[in-house]
Amino acid sequence: MKMTGAQALIKSLEMQDVEVIFGLPGGAILPAYDPILDSPIRHILVRHEQGAGHAAEGYAQVTGRPGVAMVTSGPGATNIVTPLANAAMDSVPLVVISGQVATTSIGTDAFQECAITGVTRGITKHNWLVTDPAELPRTIAAAFHVATTGRPGPVLVDVPKDVSNASMEWYWPSSLEELDLPGYHPQTAGDPELVGKAAQLILEAERPVIYAGGGILKAHASAALRELAERTGIPVVTTLMARGAFPDSHPLCLGMPGMHGNYTAVTAMQRSDLLIALGSRFDDRVTGKLSAFAPGARVIHVDIDPAELGKVRHADVAIAGDCRIVIEDLISALGRSGIGPVGSMASPGSPAASRPSQEPWMRQIRDFQERFPLTYDRDATGALKPQYVVETLRDMSPEDTIVVSGVGQHQMWASQYWRFDHPYTWVNSGGLGTMGFAVPAALGAKVGRPDKTVWAIDGDGCFQMTAQELVTASAERIPVKVAILNNAYLGMVRQWQEMFYEERYSEVYLSPDLPDYVKWAEAMGCVGLRVESPEEVAPAIDKANSIDDRPVVIDFRTDAFEKVYPMVPAGASNDDIVVGPSAGEGGR
Known about the structure:
Elements: E1 2-4, H1 5-15, E2 20-23, H2 30-33, E3 42-45, H3 49-63, E4 67-71, H4 75-78, H5 81-90, E5 94-100, H6 116-119, E6 126-129, H7 136-148, E7 154-160, H8 161-165, E8 167-169, H9 192-204, E9 208-212, H10 215-218, H11 222-232, E10 236-238, E11 253-255, H12 263-271, E12 274-278, H13 284-287, E13 298-303, E14 317-320, H14 323-336, H15 359-371, H16 386-395, E15 402-405, H17 409-417, E16 426-427, H18 438-448, E17 454-459, H19 460-466, H20 469-475, E18 481-486, H21 491-500, H22 517-523, E19 527-531, H23 537-546, E20 552-557
Parallel strand pairs: 2-3, 2-4, 4-5, 5-7, 6-7, 9-10, 9-12, 10-11, 12-13, 13-14, 15-16, 15-17, 17-18, 18-20, 19-20
Antiparallel strand pairs: 1-8
């Protein structure tokens, strides 16, 4: 069957069961927009290409399916570079289709030409410049395979305009062998010998901690993680990217570690004698001063990406493989050693029978939790505390609400004070720390899970970067809800200037009234509300939750000088954690 390259491109996306494309047309990609009119794929017209990329990321993070974005050449392609870099850092499966000038014009500095494959080579798993329309089905199939297998990540397919317009004979590759991916063979099964060694370390440990990262969610390993924790009685910390992978309400959950993690999670890792790192990468925000991080701990490190093993911290046992498969194998190995299902007793004479008791370790952890809970100063001045807003949002929302955040203080408060008991309910920019992520990502999350309540918790600085995508949400009837924690500052930068730059506030003041967020929201087709006192918080949230036919934006006027605690100062050891002015005994 003869068709154009553009028709083959859209048909290839249909063959990959793509439900939605987030995009913005332009000259070079225009041929691909015509067959969309005859396709069952939904296209969502964004107002900026960065919004297309972040919306596709939000869709991917809540569905587990690859997000798809389509943009034109030149500035269209460069505008989606930030989402590609963000997806690469956070291992999000993202497929970006970019238009390109005609092959005869490449290299001539033609109108809206940009060598986007070169620009994005370092921030994609792979990218392709298609010069023959007959290669389009094979390339699209390969792109989805690469984006979704092994360590997930972003890919880009660059399609020149003459390739889109040229004719080809339709086909669809029938096997992986046809995809022409030499050397790409992700390893999923762990080495059985190494799994056995890991089990032995667990049996010997007195103060073990499971260090669960975002790879748990990518591997759909939440159930396996819970079984491992319950069988062994080992407590679990969940990184910023892993929130929800292990229920916060579980007695073995210690919460988030790192620069703004809670005291118990941070200190348990520091005092541990065994770290079981599952789908985590020893990020600098978790380790603090690397040479002082968990100095007495041996390390088991499991990751689908062999490049992560030993990259930051030497592992006593390093296992390359899919987290779910390796955890299940580890559970089996522990079972052979005598550690059975929850509630069972180790048989006499088995290796598990001589395992050190976990009770002293858990007593110490409970003591940490009792003495150093997350807390903030609930002063009587009437100032609206951002933590109170998050707590009230949490308590008035369904427990499986999807929470999307921007980057900064509000991101940390959202992670700290929300209670995540379900996987795939927390969406944020972790590794790249992209301000402006929340609004478009929330839009994508709601498209992916229209049955769920989606709240974006954003800062006023972040909101101003990508708020135009609420026009998209209004036009497409995507009823997301946005809570702006408006402190009139670039809050995290101000916090650092206050603590480390002698309160020299250089270029961080934004003004609480410029813009007028209520009028701005209304101009974008949203319901706009403003809250200035604690007693107004619950009624405003109740009203927002009752509106399901359009987006809602609430401008919460929060305390401008509230800081995020706990905090490990940059470059300091995690032992130097600053618990905060309201902390109990031992706070710094």
